[in-house]
Amino acid sequence: MGFVFAGDMPAITKETVNRLVSRRLVISYWLIPTEPARSYFQRLINDFAQQYNAPHFEPHVTVHVGNCTDTVDGAISKPPPGYEPIVLQALEASSSSEFIKTLFVQFAMSGQLQRLNESIRTASQDSSDYQLNPHLSLLYKKISIQDRRRLMGSIEMPFSEVTFDSLKAVRCVSPTQNRADVESWRVVAETSLGSFGVRRGGRPTPQ
Q1: Among 112, 96, 114, residue whose Cα is nearest residue 104
Q2: CB atoms within 10 A of CB 9
Q3: What is the rounded distance in angstroms from the CA atom of residue 67 to the CA atom of residue 27?
Q4: What residues does 29 pair with on adjacent strands?
Q5: Mean pLDDT estimate for the chain
Q6: pLDDT for 56-95, tens place per residue?
Q7: Which domains occur in the chain, in start order?
Q8: E strands along the chain, which residues?
Q9: How many angstroms separate the CA atoms of 133 and 116, rounded?
């Protein structure tokens, strides 16, 4: 990936330069749901993606977003001792005008989730100001508020709780603003909660 310097392109605007400088590579740490929730959420994501010509992606809850460093392996290979799969309470379907939160399922905060977030921050030696807000996105697309409300009303949650048993580290562009950004995500490492050792990955693969 090459770099663009303002001096090389006299016509470039200050606004464009600021936008380019403000975007950076980060590592996003995902919790992945177990079956049958995984297949249920993946089906919703695929259906909405087809309906709105939006990107496909793997269902996940983001635990932390931090700097893109060489400490990723340590961050996900050293969960707190005795760590087990995480169970989160599903609250409601919601939406926003923000691209990365177009349509999502909100989960309740839990002490177990907060401890995992703190463990990742410590192991990755990361001081970012990421604010933990557990949710699972179902669509990344700019759509009207009427469409968002209609989709929210169409979602029937068959689970009061969802279990998450694996953790992935995904390299992303931040902020994620469009389909190309989503499709550029790459898994750099993954592990099962409670297991030892890290598996290398590739692109998140929706089913």
Answers
A1: 96
A2: 11
A3: 6
A4: 64, 169
A5: 83
A6: 999 999 999 988 765 676 666 655 555 689 999 999 999 9
A7: 23-192 (3.90.1140.10)
A8: 24-33, 61-67, 86-95, 103-107, 135-139, 161-174, 186-192
A9: 13
